[in-house]
Design brief:
There is one protein chain. It is elongated and about 50 Å long. With about 160 residues, the protein is an alpha+beta fold. Strands 1-3-2 form a three-stranded antiparallel sheet. The chain has a three-stranded antiparallel sheet with strand order 4-6-9. It is built from four helices and nine strands; from the N terminus they run E-H-H-E-E-E-E-H-E-H-E-E-E. The chain has helices at about 15-25, 35-40, 105-115, 125-130; strands at about 15, 50, 55-60, 80-85, 100-105, 120-125, 140, 145, 155. Strand 2 (about 50) and strand 3 (about 55-60) form a beta hairpin.
Length: about 160
């Protein structure tokens, strides 16, 4: 079983692994603790993590469920990239249903992720200028950079 987005029927945010497994079972899925550990360990994008004791699980990147990722602000690389399958909003990059805008540290990753939406449109953003203007950036597991919004002045199509 591979889930890209956290399903709220199966528990919200940081939850007990055993509680999560019971909730999944109530929806007719056979999923063992070993299966869950394999998803956490083998997920290429490191979307999930266990706590230090291995008893609770959470999403590392958070799409639509309110979770404190406990990330500290970081100085970003000079340029970050974003993919989209369409034109951007006049307001720039906005988070829509996510909690943050997700950015890649390299163009190739942005292009790869963007192919899910057809021909990707990739934007480079001037992260140095954004950071100097007081915008915060966070680096999640798997090298995904997060920020609240990206105004259009910092973007250029590549």
């Amino acid at each position: 079983m591979r889930r890209r987005h956290w399903d709220s029927r199966w528990g919200r945010g940081l939850g007990g692994g055993d509680d999560w497994l019971r909730a999944v079972a109530q929806h007719g899925s056979c999923f063992s603790r070993e299966d869950l550990a394999a998803v956490v360990a083998e997920n290429r994008k490191q979307r999930f993590a266990f706590d230090a004791l291995g008893t609770r699980i959470r999403s590392n990147h958070v799409y639509s469920v309110a979770v404190d990722l406990e990330l500290e602000p970081h100085v970003p690389p000079a340029v970050l990239y974003h993919h989209t399958g369409a034109a951007i909003s006049p307001a720039g990059l906005i988070k829509l249903r996510r909690h943050t805008v997700h950015l890649a540290a390299d163009r190739a990753t942005a292009e790869q992720v963007g192919t899910r939406h057809g021909r990707p449109v990739v934007f480079a953003l001037d992260a140095v200028a954004m950071h100097a203007a007081g915008r915060l950036f966070y680096c999640a597991t798997g090298g995904i950079w997060l920020t609240e919004t990206v105004p259009p002045a910092y973007l250029r199509e590549v």
